[in-house]
Amino acid sequence: MNEAYLEVLRPGINTTIQDKGRFHLYHIGITASGAMDQSKFQISNALVNNDLNEGALEFAYQGPCLKLVNGNINIAITGNINFNILRKNSTTEEGICFKSYFLEDGDQIDIISTKNSVFGYFAVQGGFKTDKIWNSLSINTKAKVGPNNGEKFSLGQKIYINKSKTEKLLEKKIDYNFLNENIIRVIKGTNYNYFSESALNIFFKEEYTVSNLSDRMGMRLEGPKLENITNTNIKSEGLVKGVIQVPADGKPIIMLSDHGTIGGYPKIAVIISADLDKVAQLPPGSKIKFEEVSLINAENYFKDHIKNIKKYIREIK
């Protein structure tokens, strides 16, 4: 029997497979990678009855156009996305996010664009037929690590699916509440005291703007410069997702999913885990204001964030 696959008619911008990430390899210079927006990634899998860590397609700004060949599949798209389903009988359906759909052999899905956001997720029931690299399906294009030789998908490729024939699921959907907040909560970084009192006041009182120099590795911010009164370079130290480094030009850089494992710029703050998904979805031109919270509050906010994801997953019906 011929294997089912999705033919890439348009690759979109930075379309890769991602899961929760590739952990415990920092000691050999391999960062975790993984979905930029973990909540929408997990919900996409829940909508098609997958394990929450099953690999899904992640895309940025413009998504792929895909044609199903040799099978039937249940799919879901999450995020704030414009997309259409082009049926083989030449009818077109306007897609709705956070809802499951059934595609038949010959159908196409055209993921046109994100709306006031950056990333979206495309999950298929049973997942994609590819091998894990170091116990993860996540692709890091900077390091060339992961399936597809560590590369994003390109025109004409075939993305194989684990289930070639499947029964149509009962329709599943949720109403997802998008919060448009520009307040990003942080805790102090390890080099917080490298910065002048004036710089710290600026960091927490002034607005910053997301620049065009943003990708899965990091996000550069435009705004008032931060004065370093100790040293603009340090011995390279370990980095984590969400840490905010300040190079010699005084403009903050937020480390994201594909960040390097070490860095030599002073770290003024770290974005709390509960706000990482929100930061990942900020397109260029977005405004950011930072707010300091205690470590205890950061932990409680993260617990609430996890509860919120679980609430959405329970609501899927």
Commentary on this structure:
- The chain folds into two domains: 5-160, no CATH class; 183-314, Cyclophilin-like (Cyclophilin, Beta Barrel), CATH 2.40.100.
- The chain has four helices and 20 strands.
- It has helices spanning 38-46, 197-205, 276-280, 295-315; strands at residues 5-10, 13-18, 56-60, 65-69, 73-78, 81-86, 92-94, 100-103, 108-114, 119-124, 158-160, 183-188, 208-214, 218-222, 237-238, 243-245, 253-255, 262-263, 267-271, 287-292.
- The chain has a seven-stranded mixed barrel with strand order 12-19-16-17-14-13-20. It has a six-stranded antiparallel β-sheet with strand order 7-6-9-4-1-11, with no helix packed on it. Strands 2-3-10-5-8 form a five-stranded antiparallel β-sheet, with helices on one face.
- The longest helix has 21 residues, at 295-315.
- The radius of gyration is 20 Å and the shape is elongated.
Q: Calculate the terminal CA-CA distance, rounded to whole Å.
A: 33 Å
SSE-based structural type: alpha+beta
Please state how the strands of the largest beta sheet are arranged side by side: 12-19-16-17-14-13-20
Major sheet: 7 strands, mixed, barrel
- What is the general shape? elongated
Sketch the topology as an H/E string, one letter per element. Answer: EEHEEEEEEEEEEHEEEEEEEHEH
Q: How many runs of DSSP E, i.e. beta strands?
A: 20
Poorly predicted runs = none
Task: Count the DSSP helices.
Answer: 4
Calculate Rg over CA atoms. 20 Å
> How big a fraction of the residues is strand?
25-35%
pLDDT averaged residue by residue: 94
How many domains, as an integer? 2
> Considering DSSP H and I runs of 4 or more, what fraction of the residues is helical?
10-25%
